[in-house]
Amino acid sequence: MLYDLIVIGTGSVGSSTGYYAAKRGLSVLEIDSATPPHTNGSHHGETRMIRHAYGEGSSYVPLVLRAQELWNELKRDTQVDIFHQTGVLNIAPKQSIFLNNIITSAEKYELPIEVYDASEARKKWPQFTIPDQFRAVLEKNSGYLKSELAIDTYVKEAKRLGAHEQFNTQVISVDNDDNGFVHVTTNAGTFIGKSAVITVGTWVKDLIPNLPIQPVRKVVSWFEAPKQLAEEIGFPAFTIQLGDGTHYYGFPANKGLIKIGRHQGGQYITKREERLDFDALNEDRTEIEPLLNSVLKTVGNLDHGVACSYDLSPDEHFIVDDLPGKKNIQFVSGLSGHGFKFASVLGEILVAKALNETLDFDLSPFLLSRFNS
After folding, report:
1. Does the pTM of the predicted model rise above 0.90?
2. What InterPro entries has UniProt attached to this entry (predicted)?
3. Residues designated catalytic
């Protein structure tokens, strides 16, 4: 069979791509090394934050606003509880570039935010111990996504719309034949398509060896939480930058547990078996302590944690491009730990590009060529 589109890696971006392609009537083959959702990549751990006034730079804002529209549509059309609008509270030193980028992005795109000095923030959220030299910015319309549930929904809906699945399959190579068709060679045979997308996450260099991507082992932890940190009483998701520049993130507690992670750090790895389980390293249990000893002292004991991985680009910004010299093979990589929220819109974009449609977004900041110099 000749497919219109072959999706290689059916995780965050891949499951979205398969769904939006099938929704538009394309013949789709979804390939994955396991059965998504699974714990081999970067999408497990229950939840991912979605922020609109983007501290990483305003070039992301049009993308994330469209992403939010698509998540809302998916929730409405499927009646699956994918998105929780809890608000996101960003806390950082007054001079923080990250916080100032949030304010600048909000002003540029007229996004609703509320800015608090430390005293005001402490009164409104007494759960935090906010130093006087800090301030806080609340993004009221933001919140979090249920990541594994979202992928499960995309996969099931794509299948309902006619997508074919080839899961638990290892891809060996991707290339064009003399007629320009894409040949995807796997341990289960070769599949042929008019176009393909490579969205395999951490281990993308198995298929595109020269990409400037560094796999990083990361962990995230769940702690016992008092009721004042619970979503049911209105406690928000949050990002916190300490005075030393370290960024932490967390989600409102559910069922007595609060999930917290550290954005920076982790361990560079070169092969899959180096992504050790949580608790394999002493620092897995201690990396959140600087936060718990300063700004968020109301958290209880560690309950459990999980390990995952980042596909880190040199500048920690995405790479969204065609494979060099191969216009009908696209790839997405370098999501660098802040990509899940964009999975919906990136899938829509990859489908539009496969159909040679004009895009509504400027993707020039995300081209691979920026690293040529």
Report:
1. yes
2. FAD-dep_OxRdtase, FAD/NAD-bd_sf, MTOX
3. 44, 47-48, 259, 263, 308, 341
